[in-house]
Amino acid sequence: MIKTFTPNDVIRYVYKETSAEENKLIAYTLLTDTDLRTFYEEILGIKQEISKIMREPSDKVLGQILTYSREFQTNRP
Asked: What is this structure's pTM?
């Protein structure tokens, strides 16, 4: 039986959510299916860009939160 892989399978593969057997089959499929290979390369690029996104709030946002918190504490009945 020949397994047809979907873009969802490729995303699972990129995020290491596939079994060892699936890894072998997907890796082979990526060598032979140019459309799926193109999708795979796009997903790798997107994953790399996502990892560059700032994951911490800026100093400005932290300042606003602290100011709000102080004002909230001061104005409590």
From this structure: 0.66
